[in-house]
């Protein structure tokens, strides 16, 4: 969560810690879009918000930059999206287009990742790094709007706390932005000033040909956002490019025996620091592995065609439900 501008209980200001590596990668990505003359004006259309980028082209542009993205993908992805938004705003000529671009969130879809990681090879070492996995879709969930950045109103002093990043659950501000207000729990979401994106969950399992003899197929939950949603159906065999992440299992927090935080105890000690995950308790934390995908490709399709960017191309015979 971005805690820039949030005030500590002692009265001092907690400044945002800069990430020089992320800022440098953001600048390199903006230079790449400019030098390669990639047309980003199509993202100004209301239904578009995702730019497809080839990892091989990034490697040809700057090999170290490409390797840095592959290693620290989850850390650098927000900087790449921020750089893309700046380029789009720069290319928006009309005032109306500029206002539309400012109100939108933009995303990157990486493709043409050479190596494929098997589902049973995914472990905690690969969390946050770029990976490409293959599997058969066994279940798809309906599309829902996901809150990605919230603006909250303090119910005690009516102060506004903007740009609160969500941590795969409904995340409140750590503390009110008003230096004389110590509210930590009483906030209201301002829907009009918050950012939402299309969100869908997909469950895949190992392909029969990759399954070791005598083993049960393992399954994995895939998280799709933006234009990647509704790009696959049960029975499809697809490649997913993204990263392995750890998300809180919100459903398990309500089961008996799980310690919950006591909201009435917050704010009793004025000298306590900022603390995250305050709604999860301290003894029992439930997490699970998921795969956050930025690109969906039909397995075996020539040229690694993006399903959601090219709905009429690529491997219809591979996507026939069994």
TrEMBL record:
Its EC number is 3.6.4.12. SMART domains: MCM (SM00350). Residues 263-275 have a biased composition (Basic and acidic residues). Residues 256-275, 302-322 are annotated as: Disordered. GO terms for molecular function: ATP binding; hydrolase activity; single-stranded 3'-5' DNA helicase activity; single-stranded DNA binding. Residues 118-248 form the MCM OB domain. Residues 40-108 form the MCM N-terminal domain. GO terms for biological process: DNA replication initiation; double-strand break repair via break-induced replication; mitotic DNA replication. Its main location: nucleus. GO terms for cellular component: MCM complex; nucleus. It catalyses: ATP + H2O = ADP + phosphate + H(+). It is found in: Nucleus. Keywords: ATP-binding, Cell cycle, DNA replication, DNA-binding, Helicase, Hydrolase, Nucleotide-binding, Nucleus. InterPro entries: MCM (IPR031327), MCM6 (IPR008049), MCM_N (IPR027925), MCM_OB (IPR033762), NA-bd_OB-fold (IPR012340). It is an enzyme of class 3 (hydrolase). Component of the MCM2-7 complex. Belongs to the MCM family. Acts as component of the MCM2-7 complex (MCM complex) which is the replicative helicase essential for 'once per cell cycle' DNA replication initiation and elongation in eukaryotic cells. The active ATPase sites in the MCM2-7 ring are formed through the interaction surfaces of two neighboring subunits such that a critical structure of a conserved arginine finger motif is provided in trans relative to the ATP-binding site of the Walker A box of the adjacent subunit. The six ATPase active sites, however, are likely to contribute differentially to the complex helicase activity. This is DNA replication licensing factor MCM6.
